[in-house]
Amino acid sequence: MLCLKKPAAEVTDTLREEYESIAASDLESEVSDSDGPEVTESQKTVFTDFEVSPEESSDEESEDRFSRWSKGDSYWSKYPPETSETMTSSQSCPGPAPGSSVETPKDAWELFISENIIDEILQCTNLGGQRAALAKGKVWQKITKEELKAFIGLNLLIGVERSCDVPIRELFMDPLQNPLYRATMSVRRYQDLHRFLQFDNRKTRVAREASDHMVAFRNVWDLFLINCRKRFIPRDCVTVGEQFVPFQGRCKFVQHLPSCLTKSGIKIFWMCDAEVPYAIDGVIYAGRQPGEETEEKNAENTVLRLSNGLQQK
Prior knowledge:
alpha+beta; two-stranded antiparallel sheet; 11 helices; about 10% strand; PiggyBac transposable element-derived protein domain-containing protein
């Protein structure tokens, strides 16, 4: 049995005729079903040569692609960009900032009273203690970081137990008082730390007081506010208010309010989140600074100063 092969030209012509007949019949059925005007035989066109040269296709694609670029180097597309279901790290949502999760009260304390604040207080207190000890011909025993943290803890304990009006020696030596006081340090060491505790270098304080009334606490206060700003992402609405902190020490900007229970104190302006009682930023009212003119719009300027980091956002 012999198998005769047809020439390639005859096979191509046969396939072309079959394709033309099928395409013509499909076109006639589509035209008859449509509601538009009738199409004459001369208007019927069958595209049998469906191969497009690579040069023409590349030119069309390049024109379609480059026509979407604007003069400002922006690409316009009618399709929105695909968004993933998971939120990326660059997106931020209101609430605690990433990395601000805590498990114990000590962790929460260290978020705001960080190590750089402890180091600043430790250095300034040791300088003040050494200066006072040399003046009396004595040797100052340097404070360690653990000892300073223990001193702060004892002060917090005094506040929790509401023992601010109890004499220090009674807290440490009375057997009926909390034994944590005398177990932490001696009463004399506590009194030394309490007497020489400083937040700045007193040697350079006089020169800095020429431009700022709050130089004795300015550096530590600014470090604390930096921690407050970066630990919380505010919501759409924030509020600004004032707080009157009772204070009876020596200070140039102490406010006297006869209507308050405590007649004197320090006024602080806070910017807080409107839903969560969190202090985002704050300004201590230090009065008119040396060489500064009187502000006509004090309230407006305070609000603008506090909201400076949130403007244009």
